[in-house]
Amino acid sequence: MGSTDAWAYPDDGEGPTRQVELSPFRIDAVCVSNDRYSRFVDATGYATDAERFGASFVFGGLLPADFPPTRGVVGAEWWREVLGADWRHPEGPESDLEGRGDHPAVHVSWADADAYCAWSGLRLPTEAEWEYAARGGLSDQPFPWGAEREPDGEHRMNVWQGSFPEANTRADGYLGTAPVRAFPPNGFGLYNVTGNVWEWTGDRWSTRWDAESVVRDPRGPNEGDRRALRGGSYLCHDSYCRRYRVSARMANTPDSSSGNTGFRCAADLRP
Is residue 254 one of the residues assigned to a domain? Predict the structure, then answer.
């Protein structure tokens, strides 16, 4: 696990590299889509944190030019708090899921993702499981397919193309989210593990690791007010966010939601 790549941010705790062993497990080939999440909500009547709070955070570049002024995030003013934004209305109350049934469900908090997994008889993957699966059988490579971000000029993931945050050329084909199977899978058959949307894991956040011994089935700490996310998103760009790599990570509070955060499920492998 981990990386000492020059692109890694020291405060993210990617390094040092370390050996872990994992028990067999299952993991979704794709993020949970809007169609899948809607079946959960239809069956349970579940209301997400964003729906209960009445707002969530949307990338300003996805909003109409005449969208009313809203509160931004200090230091990341491209994020706008939008009243009425939630998983059904990704850019606010005037938007919907038309044509996006196979896109990842976004504006889901850790608690929302955990609730879906419990209903499905599944769970969120640990960070170790997620990283092992995302690597697709490769070792010491930054991407699920190898060393180059765009081998032979081919786009393999949905990330920001152009000058962030002013201009996205959409050279990879997308401005916001992409379908959950938009690009070729990795060696284990997983799609879009880097780019597209950040993915919640089951672990609490930590940056302290045992690099001296092999750890079996590592889990995050038992206490802490943040959860770990993996994979980067369609907003990652090497000018400010180089986290579209298999070892990269981020933390957020479990009630937080945004238009670039989703999840995939995992489960123990039983006989």
Answer: yes
Say if residues 265 and 118 touch (Cβ distance below 8 Å). Answer: no
Number of domain units in the chain: 1
pLDDT for 271 beyond 70: no
State the residue for tokens 């997308």: 174
**Angle of helix 34-44 versus helix 110-120 axis, rounded to 10:** 70
**Residue 109's Cα: distance from chain center in Å?**
11
Residue 124's H or E segment, with its range, is: none
Q: If you write DSSP's letter for every residue of 169-238 in order, what string do you get? A: --TTS-SS---TT-S---TTS----SSSSEEEEEEEP------SSPEES----S--S-EEEES--TT--T
Q: What is the mean pLDDT of the chain?
A: 96
Task: Please give the Cα distance from 167 to 173 (Å, whole number).
Answer: 14
Pairing mode, if any, of strands 198-204 and 261-262?
parallel
> Does residue 80 sit in helix, strand or coil?
strand
Give the pLDDT mean for 216-245.
95
Closest CA to 34 of 94, 92, 110, 116: 116
Cβ-contact 201, 264 below 8 angstroms: no
Domain assignment of residue 99, given as a range: 10-268
* 157-171 pLDDT per residue, tens: 999 999 999 999 999
